[in-house]
Amino acid sequence: MLLIPCPWCGPRDEAEFRYGGQAGIGYPADPAALSDAAWAEYLFFRDNPSGWFAERWFHTAGCRRWCDALRNTEDNAIAGACPPGGTLPEVPR
Amino acid sequence: MSGPERVEIVFDGRTLAARRGLSLAAALLEAGVRTVSTGAATGRPRGVYGIGAEEPGAFVRVESAVGAPMAAATEVAVEDGLRASGLAGFARLPAGQEEPAAVRRDKVWAHCDVCVVGGGPAGLAAARAAADAGARVILAGRGAEFGGGLTGAAAAIGGVPEREWRAGQAAALAAAAEVRLLRRTVVTGRYDHGELIALQRRPDAPAGGALERLWHIRAGAVVLATGGAERPIAFEGCDLPGVMLAGAAAGYARRFGVRPWRSAVVFGCHDEALWNAAELHDAGVRIAAVADARPEPGAAPAAALAERGIALHRGHGVLRARGGADGTLDAAVLAPVDPAGRACGDPVEVPCDLLAVSGGHDPVLDLAAHTGLRPRWSAARAAFLPAALPEGLHCAGAAAGTRAAEDAVAEGAAAGAAAAAGPEVPGGGAAPGPVAARTAHGAADGGAPPMALWATAGPDTDEAAVVVDLAREATLADVRAAVAAGRSSVEHVKRSTTIGTGPDQGRTSGVLLTGLLAAMLGRGMDEVGGTTRRPPYAPIPFAALAGRDTGEFLDPVRRTPMHAWHEAHGAVFEDVGQWKRPRYYPREGEDMGAAVLRECRAARSGAAVLDASTLGKIMVAGRDAGVFLDAMYTGMASTLKVGRCRYGIMCTADGMVFDDGVAVRLADDRYLITTTSGNADTVLAWLEEWAQTEWPHLCVQFTPVTDHWATVSLTGPRSREIMAGLAPRMDVSAAGFKFMTWRDGEVAGVPARVLRVGFTGELTFEINVAAHYGAAVWEAVQDAGLEHGITAYGTETMHVLRAEKGFIVVGHETDGSVTPLDAGMGWAVSTKKDFVGRRSLARADSARADRGQLVGLVPDDPRRVLAEGAQLVAASDAGAAPPVPMQGHVTSSYDSAALGRSFALALLRGGRDRHGERVLAVHLDEATPARVVDPVFYDKEGSRRDG
């Protein structure tokens, strides 16, 4: 079980969280202006890297706040977490 | 130490005297039981082979105390009244035997700076050093006492005899404030971020205490002092009872004084096996011969054997173990062997009843492997050693390949200190890496390097009798056949031969298989590698994983304030999420169908009442609440006037219906929204997600208030009269209290908020009161309704009534692939604003004419209720050979009192344009004809909603 550093509560067990997928996928400012393909890109397409990945977690059984975390998908190392859209630590890419 | 206590145990129906503190395996050896069980496939006899978790042969069923359908005899402790029997073939769960209720199990969550796994010399030293450095320490050891392989050894640590040293360490640890000692505890898994799972057996638990305890440990750093695993050498007949690991045999003699053998042959290829021979001799076992496959064994052990007058055969190996009349070991056949184990001289036969064999020792690194570490082969040490340990993981003692006790202690202390220091060492120095493994095999100590030897063979060796995996009874011939079939990956050979898949998980056969494959394929040991080690390291009973989370503690149960009334009135409950909701209230002689028809009739013709307290309720507050809800609902919320309510649908971004409910505008900056009963938490999370991650600039907050309120939904044409009686100061007239409005007032003498919203199509008052008034108000409604024939109804009736009106239920009519337009609710979708999901509704796929659309169905046979989930096919496809094109499926289906017949809702391809068409509803090979109709079956004009 991962130990996720909630920016508000500190390190907490993964069981207290819900996963929120890739971080930094913003809702388009004007969805109506997008082509079907561009909209589908927003809806369905996500990165799936082997390595560092910025992702979202929701501390549903804790402070009920969302955060972004930087996790290495190869060994589950977590470099840090921040409020949504904040600054995550620099890591070798 | 006082004299060992003798207790009675029963094995295979025989009563034996045994010493407490021994393992069952030791007790059986001492009692002269040579054959403990039989092989699952061949039925060949199996004796005690090892001394710990590595045991591949002696499996038993434990019938007393906690019990176990299958356990290694080496892992079962002798207790008074122990009953066990040898397993013949496969393990079987005892039929119809309930576990005694007294067996209790629980779970503990613990945190520490340093967790030391293993209670041997390295582990004790590591725990001491970490504790001395001020760390919070957990030390987990498998035995009833700490000491591990050191126990009973002639070794001294820093001049202190081992027993004194052990006692001193344990006492110092017990006295330390921040040290937790877990005895009889096996760490079964190591997971991410320092998480360990451990199983503790507690035969000495106080009465009523847990006999097994599952530990969830979160450690800042972990020291693996998990010791070494001895591997055998394979030869013909090496599975006979009487053949044992040399270290195990010496361990039984040294640690427990168990030495039932008259004459022993020892066979090895490293110095420690020679020392084992000396130990057995010193314990009183006659050593008939010692064979060392190396031409040059260590000078010191060779001298020790010579001193004792023991014949040491250099460059020799055992080619064959011979069985006697009872099927157990009778003699060993020795011959000179070359470095590959092939016989190169004349064999001699040596009678013996113990053949102690040892091919070397590999560190037990399962817990390191659980997160992906691969050990590396050391040719010099003839063992797989740890390599490149990640930060926060340390390895010491035999687990690092260090076999000598004093070296292991030094290494353990260093690892403990490093673990306590963490990655940053004060003073700016780099953290110490894994301590370099030392060797006790240097020529300076009179030692000689070990040799890697996997199997021996003579000219007439039958490879089908050279057993590689005792538990799986897989042989050298099986390995050779797998390679001949073209398999070259150790994982493929494992699956092909089953080597390593037995209950012992191949602890004695894993490295052997790698070595044999490397030799057959001409590859290096690292190139072949080992099979993946996965948790759990040792078996965990499911019951231990469950702990107390069974029965009523399995999942929280949520009950409404009116629950006691429902129970007293015979309600049949159904689970909705964690809620218990009345499904129907059967009267004398009624089945569900009859009860539901009665409840429906009451709602349509008189008055009926539903406990709607489980409806999800979320307070949405803040000056931007309206703007925010506009983005969440398909319809408008910001234009809703204070005092009014509006039905709303929420979609996911892909345009599919996600939830529905009613938005109630309480004030300019305040809404109460309702959600589906089972979906309240999901909707709350959804709102939080958008508010926090997309539009944090909006001022809006959410408060879940579901169980703050009790909700009584009073429906039916006579409900106004009842309301008038309950709330004399409230204007409940059709003109004064309009549909989709709300007001605060007093109902049954308590403050209440009443909504004119409903789900039945009839005149409805939804009375909300503070939860603690719920039971009283519910009863007051019953009393006030008595003269009007008020009838309590449950969820089943609610479903029938809403389906008659064509109202959808999220999860019935929707499944994550249904848009509001598919569900026929375009009227609830605004075209004037953006909302989450709107763009998706403009995709070509959303506009497809052949999407599943909500329709009604009336079966040709009015008494026939279609199966929910039944697939729909065109009537013209009746009798056609499959596959027949699917047209849709039945989503809800009931018998209706108001219609006097059965009816259903369905999603049908292009259904809105197919009213009047006939379809077949297919369920369990039966096709039921039905006609497609409008989904609103009852009161299409909506004339009944205002009474």
TrEMBL record, chain A:
One of its GO terms (biological process) is tetrahydrofolate metabolic process. This is Sarcosine oxidase subunit delta. One of its GO terms (molecular function) is sarcosine oxidase activity. Gene3D superfamilies: Folate-binding superfamily. It comes from the Bacteria. It comes from Murinocardiopsis flavida.
Automatic annotation (TrEMBL), chain B:
Residues 562-833 form the GCVT N-terminal domain. The keyword Oxidoreductase applies. Pfam families: Fer2_4 (PF13510), GCV_T (PF01571), GCV_T_C (PF08669), Pyr_redox_2 (PF07992), SO_alpha_A3 (PF17806). GO terms for molecular function: oxidoreductase activity. Keywords: Oxidoreductase. The keyword Oxidoreductase applies. Residues 468-548 form the SoxA A3 domain. This is Sarcosine oxidase subunit alpha. It comes from Murinocardiopsis flavida. The lineage of its organism: Bacteria, Bacillati, Actinomycetota, Actinomycetes, Streptosporangiales.
